[in-house]
User: Fold this.
Amino acid sequence: MAVIYILTLFYLFLGISIIADIFMEAIEVICSKTKIVEVRDKERNIFFYELPVWNPTIANLTLMALGSSAPEILLSVIDTMNTLGEVPGELGVFAIVGSAAFNLLFISGICILSVGDEPKKIYDLGVFATTSIFSIWAYLWMYIVLSGEGDQNGVVEIWEAWLTVFFFFLLTGLAYGADRYKASVV
Assistant:
Protein backbone atom coordinates (compact mmCIF):
# COMPACT_ATOMS: atom_id res chain seq x y z
CA MET A 1 0.00 0.00 0.00
CA ALA A 2 2.86 2.39 0.81
CA VAL A 3 4.44 1.73 -2.59
CA ILE A 4 1.21 2.72 -4.36
CA TYR A 5 1.01 5.90 -2.28
CA ILE A 6 4.63 6.81 -3.07
CA LEU A 7 4.13 6.11 -6.79
CA THR A 8 0.97 8.21 -6.80
CA LEU A 9 2.84 11.11 -5.22
CA PHE A 10 5.72 10.67 -7.65
CA TYR A 11 3.42 10.80 -10.68
CA LEU A 12 1.51 13.72 -9.17
CA PHE A 13 4.72 15.73 -8.77
CA LEU A 14 5.95 14.64 -12.20
CA GLY A 15 2.67 15.74 -13.80
CA ILE A 16 2.74 19.07 -12.00
CA SER A 17 6.33 19.71 -13.09
CA ILE A 18 5.47 18.94 -16.73
CA ILE A 19 2.42 21.21 -16.62
CA ALA A 20 4.43 24.00 -14.93
CA ASP A 21 7.17 23.69 -17.55
CA ILE A 22 4.69 23.97 -20.43
CA PHE A 23 2.99 26.86 -18.63
CA MET A 24 6.30 28.75 -18.22
CA GLU A 25 7.16 28.27 -21.90
CA ALA A 26 3.75 29.68 -22.85
CA ILE A 27 4.30 32.65 -20.54
CA GLU A 28 7.69 33.34 -22.14
CA VAL A 29 6.04 33.42 -25.57
CA ILE A 30 3.30 35.75 -24.32
CA CYS A 31 5.75 38.12 -22.58
CA SER A 32 8.09 38.30 -25.59
CA LYS A 33 5.28 39.30 -27.96
CA THR A 34 5.96 42.60 -29.75
CA LYS A 35 4.05 44.91 -32.06
CA ILE A 36 5.31 47.21 -34.79
CA VAL A 37 4.34 50.86 -34.34
CA GLU A 38 4.49 53.43 -37.12
CA VAL A 39 5.78 56.87 -36.09
CA ARG A 40 6.14 59.99 -38.22
CA ASP A 41 8.67 62.72 -37.51
CA LYS A 42 8.29 66.45 -38.22
CA GLU A 43 9.33 66.00 -41.86
CA ARG A 44 6.62 63.31 -42.27
CA ASN A 45 9.20 60.52 -42.57
CA ILE A 46 7.88 57.18 -41.43
CA PHE A 47 9.77 55.11 -38.88
CA PHE A 48 8.81 51.70 -37.57
CA TYR A 49 9.55 50.66 -34.01
CA GLU A 50 9.13 47.25 -32.49
CA LEU A 51 7.67 47.62 -28.99
CA PRO A 52 6.79 44.97 -26.42
CA VAL A 53 3.06 44.37 -25.91
CA TRP A 54 3.50 43.64 -22.20
CA ASN A 55 4.98 46.10 -19.78
CA PRO A 56 7.91 44.20 -18.17
CA THR A 57 6.86 45.19 -14.65
CA ILE A 58 3.32 43.92 -15.15
CA ALA A 59 4.56 40.76 -16.86
CA ASN A 60 6.88 39.98 -13.94
CA LEU A 61 4.27 40.69 -11.27
CA THR A 62 1.50 38.71 -12.94
CA LEU A 63 2.45 36.10 -15.53
CA MET A 64 5.98 35.26 -14.41
CA ALA A 65 5.00 35.14 -10.75
CA LEU A 66 2.04 32.90 -11.55
CA GLY A 67 4.22 30.65 -13.69
CA SER A 68 6.94 30.25 -11.08
CA SER A 69 4.34 29.58 -8.38
CA ALA A 70 2.20 27.26 -10.52
CA PRO A 71 3.38 24.03 -8.84
CA GLU A 72 2.54 25.33 -5.35
CA ILE A 73 -0.78 26.69 -6.54
CA LEU A 74 -1.69 23.36 -8.17
CA LEU A 75 -0.72 21.45 -5.02
CA SER A 76 -2.79 23.83 -2.90
CA VAL A 77 -5.80 23.48 -5.18
CA ILE A 78 -5.53 19.68 -5.13
CA ASP A 79 -5.17 19.68 -1.33
CA THR A 80 -8.14 22.02 -0.96
CA MET A 81 -10.33 20.00 -3.32
CA ASN A 82 -9.54 16.81 -1.39
CA THR A 83 -10.55 18.37 1.94
CA LEU A 84 -13.66 20.35 1.01
CA GLY A 85 -15.94 20.62 4.02
CA GLU A 86 -13.14 19.61 6.39
CA VAL A 87 -10.35 21.43 8.12
CA PRO A 88 -7.87 22.21 5.33
CA GLY A 89 -4.48 20.57 5.31
CA GLU A 90 -1.31 22.46 6.02
CA LEU A 91 0.30 21.60 2.68
CA GLY A 92 -1.14 24.55 0.78
CA VAL A 93 -0.22 27.33 3.15
CA PHE A 94 3.25 26.03 3.94
CA ALA A 95 4.04 25.28 0.29
CA ILE A 96 3.16 28.79 -0.83
CA VAL A 97 4.80 30.58 2.12
CA GLY A 98 7.90 28.38 1.88
CA SER A 99 8.21 28.94 -1.86
CA ALA A 100 7.81 32.70 -1.47
CA ALA A 101 10.41 32.83 1.29
CA PHE A 102 12.78 30.66 -0.76
CA ASN A 103 12.35 32.89 -3.82
CA LEU A 104 12.78 36.06 -1.80
CA LEU A 105 15.82 35.01 0.19
CA PHE A 106 17.73 32.14 -1.40
CA ILE A 107 17.29 32.94 -5.09
CA SER A 108 17.95 36.66 -4.52
CA GLY A 109 21.12 35.78 -2.59
CA ILE A 110 22.36 33.40 -5.30
CA CYS A 111 21.70 36.03 -7.99
CA ILE A 112 23.68 38.63 -6.04
CA LEU A 113 26.57 36.24 -5.41
CA SER A 114 26.70 35.04 -9.02
CA VAL A 115 27.67 38.43 -10.47
CA GLY A 116 30.85 38.45 -8.41
CA ASP A 117 32.53 41.62 -7.23
CA GLU A 118 30.73 43.89 -9.65
CA PRO A 119 28.89 46.72 -7.92
CA LYS A 120 25.22 45.97 -7.42
CA LYS A 121 22.71 48.74 -7.96
CA ILE A 122 18.94 48.85 -8.21
CA TYR A 123 18.11 51.07 -11.17
CA ASP A 124 14.34 51.01 -10.78
CA LEU A 125 14.01 51.97 -7.13
CA GLY A 126 10.32 52.94 -7.35
CA VAL A 127 9.15 49.50 -8.48
CA PHE A 128 11.59 47.82 -6.09
CA ALA A 129 10.32 49.84 -3.12
CA THR A 130 6.69 49.19 -4.07
CA THR A 131 7.14 45.42 -4.34
CA SER A 132 9.29 45.32 -1.18
CA ILE A 133 6.66 47.12 0.89
CA PHE A 134 3.92 44.89 -0.48
CA SER A 135 6.02 41.77 0.22
CA ILE A 136 6.30 42.72 3.87
CA TRP A 137 2.63 43.68 3.97
CA ALA A 138 1.64 40.31 2.45
CA TYR A 139 3.22 38.42 5.36
CA LEU A 140 1.72 40.82 7.91
CA TRP A 141 -1.71 40.58 6.27
CA MET A 142 -1.55 36.78 6.26
CA TYR A 143 -0.71 36.85 9.97
CA ILE A 144 -3.58 39.27 10.68
CA VAL A 145 -6.08 37.17 8.74
CA LEU A 146 -4.99 33.80 10.10
CA SER A 147 -4.38 34.83 13.72
CA GLY A 148 -8.11 35.56 14.02
CA GLU A 149 -7.94 38.05 16.87
CA GLY A 150 -11.49 39.37 16.40
CA ASP A 151 -13.19 36.41 14.77
CA GLN A 152 -12.91 32.65 14.70
CA ASN A 153 -9.30 31.54 14.97
CA GLY A 154 -7.81 30.79 11.55
CA VAL A 155 -11.04 31.17 9.56
CA VAL A 156 -10.70 33.38 6.49
CA GLU A 157 -13.85 35.36 5.91
CA ILE A 158 -15.07 36.35 2.46
CA TRP A 159 -14.31 40.06 2.92
CA GLU A 160 -10.73 39.19 3.88
CA ALA A 161 -10.35 37.10 0.74
CA TRP A 162 -11.71 39.90 -1.47
CA LEU A 163 -9.48 42.45 0.25
CA THR A 164 -6.48 40.20 -0.42
CA VAL A 165 -7.37 40.09 -4.13
CA PHE A 166 -7.76 43.89 -4.08
CA PHE A 167 -4.25 44.21 -2.57
CA PHE A 168 -2.84 42.31 -5.55
CA PHE A 169 -4.46 44.70 -8.02
CA LEU A 170 -3.31 47.65 -5.90
CA LEU A 171 0.27 46.31 -5.99
CA THR A 172 0.11 45.85 -9.76
CA GLY A 173 -1.31 49.32 -10.32
CA LEU A 174 1.18 51.09 -8.04
CA ALA A 175 4.14 49.19 -9.51
CA TYR A 176 2.96 50.05 -13.03
CA GLY A 177 2.60 53.69 -11.98
CA ALA A 178 6.12 53.68 -10.53
CA ASP A 179 7.44 52.13 -13.74
CA ARG A 180 5.65 54.68 -15.95
CA TYR A 181 6.83 57.54 -13.71
CA LYS A 182 10.42 56.36 -14.10
CA ALA A 183 9.94 56.15 -17.88
CA SER A 184 8.54 59.68 -18.04
CA VAL A 185 11.39 61.13 -15.96
CA VAL A 186 14.14 59.42 -17.98
